[in-house]
C-alpha cells in the first residue's frame, strides 16, 4: 500500500520532527506540486477513470519542505556565525591584548592578517573534503578544531600561544562558510538559491554587528580571555545542534534526501526517535569517495575558467576595500573622536547592520530578477510554465549571469561614492571635532557595508550557479581570493593612512574599485559564451576535471 506524502506542515500533532520526509510510490499530481509547502496536500489514489495513467512527475529537487529547508538554513547560518564573529569580536580588545601581553599594537595587528590568510586557505582543505565525504562529518571535525582552539586561547599566557591558537581558530571557523554554501546548493534549485544565500549571509553577518559590541563589553569587564570562553560555550551549543538535527545533504551521498543513511550521516535525533532516514535504500553498498591530492587541487582549477576568475577578482577587490574600512575603524575613531573600547565596539554597529540590510535586499532582488528572466526565457522557448530550471537541466543559453548581475551598476555606484566620501569626512580635524560629526562617517560605513555585502551575495550566488555540484569548493576558492586580497589590504591600510591621510587613501580605494569595474562588464557580455564553451568541452571529454 503506498505511503502518503507528508510535508512539514501536515504532520499535525503526530510529530514535531523537522525532517520527516516520506515519499510515495504514486507521487503528487502536478497541481499538488505547485501548492505552498504550508498547505495541506492529499494523495490522489483513484485514477481508474483515466484511460492512460499520466507520466510520473519528476522527483523534487529535494524532499525537504520549504519550512524544513529554512530550518537547515538557520542551523548552517548559526554555524557560519563563527567565521565573522571570531574576527570582529576581537577588534575592540586589540589595545587590551597589547597591554596584557606586553607587545606592541602593530604586533597584535599581525594576528588579524594571519587570521585572514588562514581563513582564506583552510576552506580549500575543508571544503574539498566536504564535497567528497559529505557535509555532516566535516562540520563536526571543523568545529572540534575550533573548540580546541578556543580552549587554548582562553588560557593564552603569551603572544606566541595567542598567535598559534588564533590561527587554529581561523582554520576551524572559516570552513563553516564554504560548507554552508555547499548545503544550500544541495537542497535548493537556482530559483530558490538567491534568497537562501542572501539570508544565510545576513544571519552570518549578524555577528559583524554584535561581535565588536560583545568584544568591547567582555574585554572591559572580564578581560580579553573571556571573549574566547564565550566563543567556546557558544560553539559547543551549535555543535550539539548540528550533531542532533542537521541532515546529510551531499547529493552524491544522500541524493535528493530520500536515501536511507546511517552512521555519522544520520542525525542523532533519528537514532533517538528510531525513525528511518529517507525512504529508499542506496543502490549497492555505500563507499566514501577517495580523498587524494587531486581533491585539494580541484578547487584551484576553477581559477583557470575565465568567467569564474573575473567574477572572483571583482568581488575580491570589493571585499578588500570593505575590510580595509573595517579594520582601520579602531585607530581612526580613537584618534578623531577619542572613544573608549566600549564606545569603539558600539561604533561598529552601523557597519554590522549594513551587512544585514545589504544581504537581505540583494536576496529579494535576486529572486525577483531570476523569476522574471526565467519567465521570459520560457516564453521565448515555448516551455511550460510549470517546468523548473535547475542546475542539472539549465540550458547553456539561459542568461544566469544577467539574472544575477543586473542590479550591480547602481550598487557599485553607491559603494564608490560612499568610500570616497568616508575618507574625506575623516580628513580634517577641524571638522571631525564638531559635535555630532561622528554620525557622518558612521552613516557612510553603513552604506559601504550594505552595498559591499550586496555585491558579495550576488557574487557568491553566481559562483555557486557556475559550479553545480561543487558548492563548498566554489565557496572555498571565492574565500581564498577574498581573504588573500583582504589580508594584503589590511596589512598596509594603517601605513597608507599614516603617510597620505584618510582622504587620499579611501579616494584611491574608490578609484581602484572603478578600475576593476570592467571585469563585471566583461562577465555581463561574454560570461554566458564562456560558460557554454566550458560545458561543450566537458561534454566532449576534453575538460573532464573542470566544473561546468
From TrEMBL:
Domain Major facilitator superfamily (MFS) profile: 72-528
InterPro entries given in the database record: MFS (IPR011701), MFS_dom (IPR020846), MFS_trans_sf (IPR036259)
Pfam family, one: MFS_1
Keywords: Glycoprotein, Membrane, Transmembrane, Transmembrane helix, Transport
Keyword Nucleus tagged: no
Annotated stretches, region: Disordered: 1-61
Chief place where the protein resides: membrane
Entry-linked SUPFAM superfamilies: MFS general substrate transporter
Protein name: Itaconate transport protein
Amino acid at each position: 500500500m503506498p505511503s502518503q506524502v507528508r510535508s512539514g506542515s501536515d504532520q499535525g500533532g503526530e510529530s514535531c520532527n523537522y525532517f520527516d520526509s516520506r515519499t510515495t510510490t504514486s507521487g503528487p499530481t502536478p497541481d499538488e506540486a505547485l501548492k505552498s509547502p504550508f498547505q495541506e496536500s492529499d494523495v490522489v489514489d483513484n485514477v481508474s477513470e483515466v484511460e492512460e495513467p499520466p507520466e510520473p512527475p519528476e522527483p523534487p529537487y529535494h524532499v525537504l519542505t520549504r519550512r524544513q529547508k529554512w530550518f537547515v538554513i538557520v542551523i548552517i547560518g548559526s554555524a557560519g556565525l563563527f567565521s565573522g564573529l571570531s574576527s570582529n569580536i576581537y577588534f575592540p580588545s586589540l589595545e587590551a591584548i597589547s597591554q596584557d601581553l606586553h607587545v606592541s599594537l602593530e604586533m597584535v595587528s599581525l594576528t588579524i592578517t594571519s587570521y585572514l590568510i588562514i581563513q582564506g586557505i583552510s576552506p580549500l582543505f575543508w571544503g574539498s573534503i566536504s564535497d567528497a565525504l559529505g557535509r555532516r562529518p566535516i562540520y563536526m571535525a571543523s568545529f572540534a578544531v575550533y573548540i580546541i582552539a578556543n580552549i587554548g586561547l582562553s588560557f593564552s599566557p603569551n603572544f606566541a600561544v595567542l598567535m598559534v591558537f588564533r590561527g587554529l581558530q581561523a582554520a576551524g571557523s572559516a570552513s563553516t562558510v564554504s560548507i554552508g554554501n555547499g548545503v544550500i546548493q544541495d537542497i535548493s534549485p537556482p530559483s530558490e538559491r538567491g534568497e537562501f544565500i542572501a539570508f544565510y549571509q545576513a544571519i552570518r553577518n549578524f555577528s559583524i554587528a554584535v561581535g565588536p559590541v560583545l568584544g568591547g563589553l567582555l574585554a572591559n569587564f572580564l578581560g580579553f580571555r573571556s571573549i574566547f570562553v564565550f566563543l567556546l560555550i557558544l560553539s559547543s551549543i551549535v555543535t550539539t545542534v548540528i550533531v542532533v538535527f542537521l541532515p546529510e545533504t551531499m547529493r552524491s551521498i544522500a541524493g535528493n534526501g530520500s536515501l536511507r543513511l546511517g552512521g555519522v550521516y544520520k542525525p542523532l535525533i533519528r537514532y533517538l526517535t528510531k525513525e528511518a532516514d529517507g525512504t529508499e535504500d542506496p543502490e549497492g553498498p555505500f563507499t566514501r569517495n577517495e580523498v587524494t591530492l587531486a581533491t585539494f587541487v580541484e578547487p584551484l582549477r576553477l581559477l583557470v575558467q575565465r568567467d569564474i576568475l573575473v567574477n572572483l577578482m571583482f568581488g575580491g577587490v570589493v571585499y578588500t576595500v570593505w575590510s580595509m574600512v573595517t579594520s582601520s575603524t579602531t585607530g581612526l575613531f580613537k584618534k578623531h573622536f577619542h572613544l573608549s573600547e566600549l564606545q569603539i565596539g558600539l561604533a561598529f554597529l552601523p557597519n554590522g547592520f549594513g551587512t544585514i540590510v545589504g544581504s537581505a535586499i540583494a536576496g529579494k532582488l535576486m529572486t525577483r530578477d531570476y523569476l522574471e528572466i526565467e519567465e521570459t526565457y520560457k516564453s521565448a522557448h515555448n516551455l511550460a510554465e510549470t517546468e523548473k530550471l535547475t542546475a542539472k537541466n539549465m540550458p547553456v543559453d539561459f542568461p544566469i549571469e544577467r539574472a544575477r548581475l543586473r542590479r550591480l551598476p547602481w550598487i557599485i555606484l553607491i559603494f564608490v561614492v560612499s568610500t570616497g566620501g568616508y575618507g574625506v569626512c575623516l580628513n580634517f580635524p577641524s571638522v571631525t571635532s564638531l559635535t555630532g560629526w561622528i554620525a557622518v562617517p558612521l552613516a557612510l560605513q553603513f552604506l559601504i557595508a550594505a552595498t559591499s555585502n550586496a555585491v558579495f551575495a550576488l557574487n557568491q550566488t553566481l559562483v555557486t550557479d557556475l559550479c553545480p555540484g561543487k558548492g563548498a569548493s566554489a565557496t572555498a576558492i571565492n574565500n581564498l581570493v577574498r581573504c588573500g586580497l583582504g589580508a594584503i589590504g589590511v596589512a598596509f591600510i594603517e601605513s597608507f593612512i599614516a603617510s597620505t591621510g584618510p582622504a587620499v587613501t579611501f579616494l584611491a580605494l574608490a578609484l581602484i574599485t572603478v578600475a576593476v569595474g570592467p571585469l563585471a562588464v566583461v562577465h555581463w557580455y561574454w560570461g554566458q559564451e564562456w560558460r557554454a564553451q566550458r560545458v561543450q568541452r566537458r561534454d566532449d571529454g576534453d575538460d573532464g576535471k573542470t566544473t561546468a
